[in-house]
Amino acid sequence: MKRIYSFIVIFIAVFALYSCAARIEGSLAADGSAVLSVNMSLENRMASLIRSLSDIGGQSNAPILDGPAIARSMAEAPGITSVTFRNTSPSAIEGQIRISRINEFLSPANGRGFITFEQTTSGGRFEVNINRQTSPIIIEMLSSEISDYLNALMSPLASGEVMTKQEYLEIITTFYNRGISDEISSSRIRVTIDFPGTITNIRGGTSSGRRANFDISLLDLLVLETPLVYEVRW
Length: 234
Prior knowledge:
Elements: H1 2-16, E1 20-28, E2 34-42, H2 44-56, H3 67-75, E3 80-89, E4 92-99, E5 115-120, E6 123-130, H4 135-142, H5 144-152, H6 156-159, H7 165-175, H8 178-186, E7 188-194, E8 201-203, E9 206-208, E10 211-217, H9 218-223, E11 228-233
Parallel strand pairs: 1-7
Antiparallel strand pairs: 1-2, 2-4, 3-4, 5-6, 6-11, 7-10, 8-11, 9-10
Helix pairs in contact: 1-2, 4-5, 7-8
């Protein structure tokens, strides 16, 4: 019985990464290297659900989000130089990700990744394109375990399945409750990146000088009803 509850806790904990508030700040250098600072915390309902399951499984002292464990998993992914995360509370983490070459970040060895980076003497271009074809590859590069869990949860982000946002929320409401689906609907990922030069054109965000800001709906990312495309030129 304890083993079953332990599996449930892990299963829910991965899913909990959806229902969160996340802030990413960083800088991209002309050689394609990047440094990102990450802050992430779970919303109240999901944190409470995971804590209650942890208590049932006899793991009441374990953090809801394990920063060092997440860092160890990410450290082996392509394009990453190092990852350090620490817990600021049982349901919140902060840390830093160092990337050697941004166009290799989470990309397959024999295929094109989801990030395009170009730098010339006259300027540069950075593009992120996440769709139902590229997203399962990204998840697999990050962690095969996470890919398995997300496929079990029927998330189009991992499976590539065609599904509307409404259909996905209905599944979550049935599997969990309306409160959890509401948290997913309201969760945002806010990203601020400084680029190597003054930004001349941006798609999917706003800019000022060298700084670009993106406000990404977590529901849009999970379902990918339409591809997510972000582009910056400088």
